[in-house]
Amino acid sequence: MAFVAAMAEARHHLAAAQPMPAMRSLQRAHVLGQRDIGPHLRVHLLMLRAAWALRDGRELRGQLLRLVLTPIGHLIGRLPLGNIGTSDVSPFEPMALPPDMAHLLHDDKL
């Protein structure tokens, strides 16, 4: 449910022409949804949309790269836990989980 809520919040921000808050919601959704390929790809597609709205070329390129890497990561089982999915971090680097998300991921209450 937390993943669905984060995605809904991101879509709300995008509809209101607020791409920065949308990106923050999408970072949370990425951490929560990256273990399943469908949700993982949907997050990156919305991140691409937010990057377009921000006119952020670096983020656009980063999201295009991640859309290519995501299926490969799922195939080989190499997904960096906690990674927020934006271009300011390596797509291969695990990151520390905030306590509320660690609890959600541990209990599978997504």
Structure description:
- With 110 residues, the chain is mainly alpha-helical.
- It is built from five helices and no strands.
- It has helices at 2-15, 19-33, 37-54, 57-76, 99-107.
- Helix 1 (2-15) runs parallel beside helix 3 (37-54).
- The longest helix has 20 residues, at 57-76.
- The termini are close together.
Write the layout of secondary structure elements.
Elements lengths: L1 H14 L3 H15 L3 H18 L2 H20 L22 H9 L3
Helix pairs in contact: 1-2, 1-3, 2-3, 3-4
Keywords:
110 residues; mainly alpha; globular
Structural class, judged by helices and strands?
A: mainly alpha
| Unreliable residue runs | none
The largest β sheet comes out as:
none
Mean pLDDT metric? 93
The SSE order reads: HHHHH
Percent helix: 55-70%
CA radius of gyration: 13 Å
Number of strands: 0
Q: How would you briefly describe this protein structure?
A:
The chain is mainly α.
